[in-house]
Amino acid sequence: MSIPKTQKAVIFETNGGPLLYKDIPVPKPAPHELLINVKYSGVCHTDLHAWKGDWPVPTKLPLVGGHEGAGVVVAMGENVKGWKIGDYAGVKWLNGSCLNCQYCNHTDEPNCDDAVLSGYTHDGSFQQYATADAVQAARIPAGTDLAGAAPILCAGVTVYKAIKTSGCKAGDWIGISGAAGGLGSLAVQYAKVMGMRVVGLDVGAEKGEFAKSMGAEAYVDVKAEKDVVAAVKKITDGGLHAIINVSVSPAAMQQSVELVRKKGVVVLVGLPQDASINVPVFDSVFRTIEVRASYVGNRADTFEAMDMFCRGLVKCPIKIVGLSELPGVYKLMEEGKILGRYVLDTSK
């Protein structure tokens, strides 16, 4: 395949600085890397944090953001095995890890101290050509809708892993806080496919209709409902077995502790800046509740989440816009006006 020397990308030179849509050089893959012609890239809330630089972990600068890139392998380093030119591949949040530490050896590569992160410590998918470690790059079956598959690479894998972390089983009630967002809309679907009964929690009637269209059995408008805890307990006959917090509302995270029944599990996923929750010791012990955290999935989680998408068991509610329109997407994200996921077409 013919590979150009330059490409279009969105890059910023300082955190919070101008998002520059410009020509930059096409990167050369290292011996262990693939070069992927990114066709589509999802936009994640993490990308917004990376641009702002408001997380305690610093980004590289200058930086090309993005970590939900779906495309085609066009080149590879001399040490790469098991891939061929023309394969569909995905750029994930976890771009690479050491593969030798205690975490990597126990399939917890995302927790590796030397993890390489796409769109954070490594230039990501908001460009037409991106590099990815051949071991960690996602395998996407030939013929897959790449626009729809892009959000699975982070949003899908992340919520699928969180649901597994909750320990919920078929028939259990599971709550999705932030049910109409990019992660939440996928979490609703994965939970339903796994046999769970889903209560969506979000703000506004429009988001409620959307969450129900994704498969939520019930919906609670946390702004309109006078007593959210009572409403959830009434729906579930006593409280949720687990709740997945994919919203970035500290207040919602705090309230989620009250929404679970005895032996219930609270799973933290969203990462609002400087947030914390208070878990009363007596109540937690007396009700035997657990608070767990869930990060991104490993390679097996990625395979399983992508397989469900490819078999049509889940779908990505997306809106496709051009790569150059990324600043507008960030604005909508900050205003909380996004249903589902925005996906960037790198050709525009």
From TrEMBL:
Transmembrane segments: none annotated. One of its GO terms (molecular function) is zinc ion binding. Its EC number is 1.1.1.1. Its cofactor is Zn(2+). Keywords: Metal-binding, NAD, Oxidoreductase, Zinc. The keyword Transmembrane does not apply. Residues 16-344 form the Enoyl reductase (ER) domain. The keyword NAD applies. It is an enzyme of class 1 (oxidoreductase). PANTHER family: ALCOHOL DEHYDROGENASE 1-RELATED (PTHR42940:SF3). Belongs to the zinc-containing alcohol dehydrogenase family. This is alcohol dehydrogenase.
